[in-house]
Specification:
With 74 residues, the protein is of the alpha+beta class. It is 18% helix and 42% strand. It is built from 1 helix and 4 strands, in the order H-E-E-E-E. Strands 3-2-1-4 form a 4-stranded antiparallel β-sheet, with no helix packed on it. A hairpin with a 4-residue loop joins strand 2 (39-45) and strand 3. The longest helix is centred in the first third of the chain and has 13 residues, at 6-18.
Length: 74
C-alpha cells in the first residue's frame, strides 16, 4: 500500500466530508482545556480511537469536563 502525503490525505478527507452537509460524532471528552481564553482543545474518544478537536471559546455553549459523553457536530 502506498503511503499518502499529508496533502493527499487531507484532500481525500475533505472530499469525503464534503459529500455530506453535516455530521455528528459521539464520544467521551478527555484532555479538555481552554487556551488563552480563545481556543477550546479536547480529545473525543471511544474504546478504540481518539480524535483531537478544537473550536473557538465563544462557540462553547455549555460547561464541558473530562469524562463527559457528548455529541459534537461539524
Amino acid at each position: 500500500m502506498k503511503a499518502l502525503t499529508v496533502t493527499e490525505f487531507i484532500e481525500q478527507i475533505n472530499d469525503l466530508l464534503s459529500a455530506t452537509d453535516r455530521f455528528s460524532v459521539e464520544g467521551e471528552v478527555s484532555s479538555f482545556k481552554i487556551k488563552d481564553g480563545k481556543w477550546v482543545l479536547f480529545d473525543l474518544k471511544d474504546k478504540g480511537s481518539v480524535i483531537s478537536c478544537f473550536m473557538t471559546a465563544w462557540q462553547l455553549k455549555a460547561e464541558v469536563e473530562d469524562g463527559m459523553k457528548v455529541v459534537v457536530m461539524g
